[in-house]
Every structure is written in structure tokens, then in C-alpha cells.
Amino acid sequence: MFSLFMGFYRYLFQKHQFQVLIVGLDYAGKTSVLEQIKTIFCGMEPLPPGKITPTIGLNIGKVSIDGANLVFWDVGGARSLRSLWERYYGEAHGLLFVIDAADTARLEEAREVLRQLLNNAELAGIPLLVFANKQDAAGALTPHEVQARFGLHHAEGSSQPQHVLGTTAIRGEGIDEGVRWLAETLRTSPRALALQTG
Ligand code: G3D
Ligand code: MG
């Protein structure tokens, strides 16, 4: 009873904190996206692109958006590191999947990785933001093309919110809009509310 009361109290009076897992293949631009998020929402200088090295551990960025705290976890995307993602599933309120929209040779691999994520019971109903990144690069698929190729059409009656956006992480384009969508969606997401009060 007491824990129920405390959960309700926290829900009403505390600033919500949401954890967002940034995933996708290596080289998609995940760390560049996180650096831009920190720049846009915390006013921090981004690391110069040459200083962003392949992620082996975990990069964390905490930002405050319209009264909600979002903590972004950027985990390494190399094949050998993907098994570590599972450790974060249970505590993730949202998922940010980054795709290199110009790397058509690896689209199938990215599609399979996303399919496995969405089939994981631990991530059921999780709000999903997809960045079709590298829109500046020659031959990049548009967000609509990515949506079609990945079969990302919000199913009727599905409780999983989805949003696909085109981004150019190295210039910070599209990031702000996507992160605001995520913050807004997390506020009312049944999964996020369950994790907050649970
Ligand atoms: P990752 O964390 O998903 O592995 P990174 O990806 O953020 O490390 O980025 C991988 C490479 O893609 C980097 O190039 C980075 O500058 C580049 N990149 C990220 N976003 C964009 C983008 O929007 N457009 C373009 N053209 N490149 C991008 P390097 O050469 O430093 O390895
Ligand atoms: Mg990285």
C-alpha cells in the first residue's frame, strides 16, 4: 500500500526522469546524435567529429526538456557489443534507433537488428524514434523510404508510438524535433508511466 502511495506521489510531484536507449549499427551516427543532443539542450560544445571514436562502453547524456529529464544511453553498436544492449532493456522508457540512410549495403542488417529489438518482450510498447541519419550524404534514403523499407507503419490498435525523421547529425539537423517528440510521447506512454511508478 505504502509503495503504491509513494509511486503515486512521485508520479504527481517529482520531475519525471526517462531513460532512452540509443541503438543502431556501428557507424550510423549514434554518438554524433548524442553530442548534438547535449549541445542543443545543455549548450555544451559538441566534440569535433574527429574526436568521436567508436563506442566501446557507454556514453551518457542527461538533458532537461520542458520539465522532464531525459537520460540518453549511447551503447556501442558493433556486432560484438550488441549482446550488451539487453542489460538496458528493463530500464529503458524509450528507444532511439539511428540508421545510416546512405549505407544501403547495410540496410538489411539494420532492419534485422530493429526487428529483433521490436520483437523483444522486454521492450513491448516502447516509444520508438527512428533517425534516418546522414541526409546530407549522396544517395541517402528519405525518411519515407526508410519507413517503407523497414516496414515502420504504425499498426492500427498498436500501443507502440513510432516516429521516423530525417537527420543530419553532424549539422544538428532534425535532432531537436525528434527529441521533443520523444519527451512529449514519454510523458503519456503507458510503459513509461508503469516504469516510473513500478
Ligand atoms: P556510431 O556512434 O553510431 O558508431 P558515430 O557513429 O557518431 O561515431 O559516427 C560515425 C561516422 O559517421 C563519423 O565519421 C561521423 O562524423 C559520421 N556521421 C555522423 N552523422 C553524420 C551525418 O549526419 N552525415 C555525415 N555525412 N556523416 C555523419 P568519421 O569519419 O569521423 O568516422
Ligand atoms: Mg558511437
Describe this structure as you would to a colleague.
The chain has 198 residues and is an alpha/beta fold. The chain has one domain (15-197): P-loop containing nucleotide triphosphate hydrolases (Rossmann fold), CATH 3.40.50.300. It has 7 helices and 6 strands; from the N terminus they run αβαββαβαβαβαα. It has a 6-stranded mixed sheet, sandwiched between helices. Strand 4 (94-100), helix 4 (107-119) and strand 5 (128-133) form a beta-alpha-beta unit. It is globular. Guanosine-3'-monophosphate-5'-diphosphate binds next to helix 2. Magnesium ion binds next to helix 2. Belongs to the small GTPase superfamily. Arf family. InterPro entries: P-loop_NTPase, Small_GTP-bd, Small_GTPase_ARF, Small_GTPase_ARF/SAR. It comes from Chrysochromulina tobinii.
What is the end-to-end distance?
Answer: 12 Å
SSE order in H/E notation? HEHEEHEHEHEHH
Which outline best applies?
globular
| Helicity range | 25-40%
CATH architecture name:
3-Layer(aba) Sandwich
* Poorly predicted segments: none
Determine the structural class based on helices, strands and strand pairing.
alpha/beta
Small molecules (ligands, ions, cofactors) in the structure = guanosine-3'-monophosphate-5'-diphosphate, magnesium ion
How many separate domains make up the residues? 1
| Rg of Cα set | 16 Å
The first-level CATH class name: Alpha Beta
Strand order of the largest sheet: 2-3-1-4-5-6
CATH topology: Rossmann fold
Strand content: 15-25%
Count of DSSP strands: 6
Characterize the largest beta sheet: strand count, sense, and whether it forms a barrel. Answer: 6 strands, mixed
Counted by DSSP, the helix tally is 7
Mean pLDDT: 88
